[in-house]
Amino acid sequence: MPDVPGIDAITVPAWLESNVGGAIGPFTFELIEGGRSNLTYRVSDSAGHRYVLRRPPLGHVLATAHDMAREHRIISAVGTTGVPVPPTHGLCTDEAVNGAPFYVMGFVDGVVLDHPDKGAALSSETKRDIAFDLIDVLADLHAIDVDAVGLGDLARREGYVERQLRRWTRQWADSRTRDLPAIDEVAALLAAAIPDQQGVVIAHGDYRLGNCLTDLDRRRIAAVLDWELCTLGDPLADLGYLGVYWATPEGDGKRPNDPTGAGGFPSYGELVERYAARTGRDVSRIDYYVAFSAFRLAVISEGVYARYVNGAMGDAIDPELLESFRSAVEDLAIGALTALRQGSAR
Questions:
Q1: Reduced to 3 states, what is the DSSP secondary structure of residue 286?
Q2: Which residues of the chain fall short of a pLDDT of 70?
Q3: Prior bond of 26 cis (ω within 30°)
Q4: How far is 28 from 9, CA to CA, in rounded Å?
Q5: DSSP secondary structure string, 250-313?
Q6: What is the predicted pLDDT for the residue at 234?
Q7: Structural domains in the chain plus CATH codes
Q8: pLDDT digit string (tens) for 284-316?
Q9: Is 214:221 a contact under the CB 8 Å cutoff?
């Protein structure tokens, strides 16, 4: 087997044959996602079986930020419900095997819709069907009994938004590279008007089409991916986060990694109405949650920008990429203020 960064050519195949039922070597490994997030590999065996292996990024990382056992636990639990996720096949916590923990799950066929060009290739019927299925899957996720699936102790249950605001306000103070009064104003407005939390659900934390595999033939979500930020929390946080990415039906979107920028998708208001009908939850303050999610994304973007500026991401800095993170912070801050003003005007 040729060398693949992040995969031990001797010990990982041996572990797969011993721990994944039906897996037969030799294996091929192909990196399909990498960078600052967890590394994802497509794995094929000699019998034609396909798997996915996930491990932390190479180099020194915070274990709490790339907790493979936690991610495996969440997907395994959600997999016992009707919410579509890849089936899990095994978890390795012995770092002697591959230098870091990893887990293996089944390979799911589907398309990742993460660019307006991909959205432009879809028919109007497909856009509508997958948009509504995305919301139905979110409603189903939020209907899961966290105790029944063994996730009741995953995190604190109450005060989700309050805790998150404290965390990201501190993060802004630590990572800011300039004065941006809009961010400070948003933080103050959010802290002064926190809504009552409507129950405790499995909150995905990064729920959008770009983090799903979509079956275009069936016009359905085939699997929800990227559970790194999952926790217990306020259900409307996921719905509000989707609103930061979702473009207008005319395609007026500011997130370059979302297919809705192509236009022709249902409006965000339609998605919110469908979620309310499916769950019975009060969505009258959804603008607050959109603003909260935009604030959170702005702070994350500033943190990435700061790391690039300070050289933590290496010497080769792409000026366009650097400017994209800088401008994203400002755009998200303005978007958060706009959402808050819309909410107060209702």
A1: helix
A2: 1-2, 34-36, 59-66, 311-317, 345-346
A3: yes
A4: 10
A5: T-----TT-GGGGS-SPPHHHHHHHHHHHH----TTHHHHHHHHHHHHHHHHHHHHHHHHTTTT
A6: 97
A7: 11-106 (3.30.200.20), 116-345 (3.90.1200.10)
A8: 999 999 999 999 999 988 988 887 777 655 556
A9: yes
Whats the size of the chain, residue-wise? 346
Packing angle, helices 124-142 and 235-245, rounded to 10: 160
d(CA 143, CA 285) in angstroms, rounded, equals 20
Instruction: Tokens for 265, please give them.
Output: 């998708």
Tokens 């309310």 correspond to: 276
pLDDT score recorded for residue 125 = 98
CB 50 within 8 A of CB 109: no
Q: 242, 208 in Cβ contact below 8 A?
A: yes
Is the backbone of residue 59 left (phi > 0), alpha (psi -120 to 50) or beta?
Answer: left
The tokens for 19 are 């721990």
Query: How many Å apart are CA 206 and CA 202, to the nearest integer?
Result: 12
Q: Which residues on neighbouring strands pair with residue 221, listed in sequence order?
A: 214
**Under 8 Å between Cβ of 194 and 165:** yes
